[in-house]
Amino acid sequence: MQGTLFAREHDPSDVVYTPDWCAQDMLDWFKPCGKVLDPCKGAGAFFDKMPDGAEWCEIREGRDFFEWREPMNWIVSNPPYSIYLDWMRHSFEVAENIVYLVPLYKALHSSTLLAETFQWGGIVEIVHIGTGRDVGFDFGFAAGAVHYQRGYRGGMRYRHGF
User: Fold this and answer.
1) Are 122 and 152 within 8 A, CB to CB?
2) Pairwise CA distance, residues 96 & 35, whole Å
3) Contact 126, 107 (CB under 8 A)
4) Is 21 helix (H, G, I), strand (E, B) or coil?
5) Residues 37-58 pLDDT 10s
6) Global pTM exceeds 0.70
C-alpha cells in the first residue's frame, strides 16, 4: 500500500506557486468539467478558478492527496516534482484526465513513467508555455501543461502557447 505524503521527506523546492495568469490559461484551454480536483492547492491559483464544486488537497492544510480515493473526471494542478513518479501513479488511480504544469522533461524522461502512462492511457497534448522562469520556477528548462487521459490511444498534439 502506498504511504501518505506525511510519511515522505518534504523537499522545499517542491513548493512553487503557479502564477494566476498561467492557471487561468490552463483552465480556459482544457476546460475541466464534472468532478474536478486540485491535489496540491497551495495558494489557490487553480482551485479558486475551478468550476463550482471542485475539490482540493493540500498537505500543509492536512489534506493529503495520497489519501484521496474518490474517482475524478479531472485533476489540474502544479504537482511536486521530487516525487513525480509516485504522484503520477496515484493520479492514474483516481482520474480520467490529468493536466499538470511541469518541466516538460518530467513527462518524458522516465521509461518507467512512459510505460505506465501507456498502460493507463496516454498523453493527449503538451502545451509549451515557455521556460520555467516564465511561470515562476527557478529553472530555465521548458515548462508546460501536459494532458494525460485514461484509455487514450490517439496521437499526441504539441502546441506552443495557449
Assistant:
1) yes
2) 10
3) yes
4) helix
5) 999 999 999 999 999 999 999 9
6) yes
Tell me: the pLDDT tens digits for 120-152? 999 999 999 999 999 988 888 999 999 999 999
**Cβ atoms of residues 123 and 146 within 8 Å:** yes
Encode burial over 90-116: b for 16+ CB neighbours within 10 A, e otherwise. Answer: bbbebbbbbbbbbbbebbeeeeebeee
Buried b (16+ CB within 10 A) or exposed e, 53-65: ebbbbbbeeebbb
Contact assessment for residue 115 and residue 157, using Cβ atoms and an 8 Å cutoff: no
Burial class of 147 by CB neighbour count within 10 A (0 to 12, 13 to 18, 19+)? buried
DSSP characters over 36-85: EEESS-TTSTTGGGSPTT-EE-BGGGTB-GGG--S-EEEEEE---STTHH
